[in-house]
Request: fold
Amino acid sequence: MNFGFDDDQQSLRDAAEHVLAAESGPAVVRAGIDDPDAWRPLWATIVGLGWPALAVPEDDGGLGLGVVDLVALAEVTGRHVLPAPFLSSAGLAVPLLATVDTPAAHAVLAAIAGGTVTTVALAGPDPRDGDLAAGATWDGATLSGTKRLVTDGTRAETLVVTATSPDGPVVAVVPATRDGVRVEPVESVDPNRPLADVHLDRVALDPAAVAQVDPGAGVDAARTVAAAELVGVCDKVLEIAVEHVSSRTQFGRPLGAFQAVKHRLADVFVATERARTLTYNAAMLLDDAGSSSRERSGAAAMAKAAASEAAIFAAKSAVQVHGAIAMTWEHDLHLYTRRARQGALCLGDRRSLYRQAGQAYLQGVA
Amino acid sequence: MDVTETDAQREVRERYRKWLDDFLPADYHDRYAHYREDWGLRRAHQREAFEAGWLMPQWEPELGGQDLGSLETLTIRLEAAEQAAPKLPNIQGPNVVAPGLRQHGTDAQQDRYLVPLLRGDEWWALGMSEPDAGSDFGSLRTKAVRRGDVYVVNGQKIWTTQAHESRFATLYVRTDPEAPKHRGISCLLADLDSPGVTARPIRMASDGSDVFCEVFFDDVEVPVENLLGAENDGWGVAMASLNHERDMIWVMNWVDVERGLDRAAWAMASIDGGPGDDLLVDLGRRAADAAAIRLTGYRAVTNELRGGRSREFLMLKLFGSEALQRTWEFAIEAAGPAAVADAELLFEDFEGLGATIYGGTSEVQRNIVGERALGLPKG
Reply:
């Protein structure tokens, strides 16, 4: 039992921190809100560093690492609200495709390692629906339906779509430019992470591109990586808040000396560490062949729920202790608040995930 | 990172489990409510745990241990909690006083006090709070004046758990009235059977609670050799003692959170048509608390084994005690309005109110987290 990163993981984090501090600073992130292409040079950099290839199997040209490694890196990308589509490609698509052992899936994995932006289309018409295949149907020759609120949906060259079929859930690989695919941009609170609804109108696919797979296992991993990113957001906003309340004085004292302020930030620390522990736990269970699928999905749901809750609480608390300046464009906090909100609602919001964790608990004691 | 138990963890856990199962009566788990109040069993459990090396697993065999590492020790503590092992009758003795004696005591003090304490033959009280010194411990006024070979103690302590049944107390006294308030405090190992000590139990709101006392010291003589740590370094002794106490408390909190969850799940199972989403959501939240307490404990221990200092230790008491209260509140919600007549459930909830008070209130814990974990300025 050990909750620490190993030397390789720590080196990866240190290097990522170094690169992103230089290339994904607040100015870059802020520019991305108005310029939809501002992320491209950064994406080229991180593809060059091999980040999208992290969890791609070695046979597909990747580094063959696991969820713990993705989590190690995602905490850092979260700290810097990375405006490039790392989460969708490396954190969502790769773990899901890794559960699909078909030539088509391996080809997409290899493409991701080479920098092809890829995302997962999961939610159906009602994003509350816990059915991970809802919204699209595969009839053996064509794929139809609507997938909503697809993360990085306007940027993705390849879509990994979950769907129902007469034989159970499937995972389909769909080029975004294929006939019948319409990507409808949806306004995102975090324009650095654009959203789209994807309409599929009898999209003809080679059956080899469609695999009979329950997406649950892949989604568990995706949720865990998304949770890690949110923990990174928590860390950063807490740092910003601590720095502010330690230097800003009112009534002749630093704000942080007032218990009303100190105690709120102490609570943010607790919420953050609660989420981090649960995220590491889920990541380790996902990498551990000996864990059960019930354990994994319960742990991933808890991690994502806790991280969603913590990120919103952390961001709002940071805004509160800053006072008026935090409501301005000029101040950086809104960049993190946007990511916190977007991340908290994608791949399952906290209520639906806590409910899932509650159900898993009851099944465990029954 | 590795979430699986190490071989060493599994080995000691299985060995401990076998020992505990052999010790406990066959119907222990079925009649836990009865055995919980069985003081004979609880005393015997402590004695045998001491002999078998399960009382202080990290210590040497002469002192109730078997030289286990910190990870294996935590494993045993959590296993004991999970198996509802009998509670130590005088829990602050082994868990707060004993580590303090080891850290600050002279060889002679350790030789005299440790074994009887660990066997449960001599009980200990923590003489900290006073009528005008609660969270503001540093403003205590009980004073000790050195006269030849003794300190002469005058003053009053309060909220002193089990003082009327305890032989000794770690007694915090002011030895230098001129020094700044944190620097004039000393810790004495006081014999509560000494002339001039009066310990009066205070009736508790709830019958099952451990009993508080008020303790009066009227020209009580304490030999100079009973000074624990250096004279006027009582603040340091107290802070170390509170660290041990926090470390003990979160494990106790975690057990109660687990019991509260079981209770809630049991209530939910009896709902016609199954529990609604509102209860399932809250159950998930509370189950996440339980998992996070236990795993953050492991996270903190394994971080320190890797040579780091772990800030997470500082939050466990705050988090555990508040999670405990949320869990019993939730168990009542899960039981519904009928809970109003469920004396046992309401007792659990009421007992839980103490958790955010003893061992340093949540308000003090938030100061600790804010100042030591986050580096915020002192108020």
Q: What stands out?
A: Chain B has a mean pLDDT of 95.
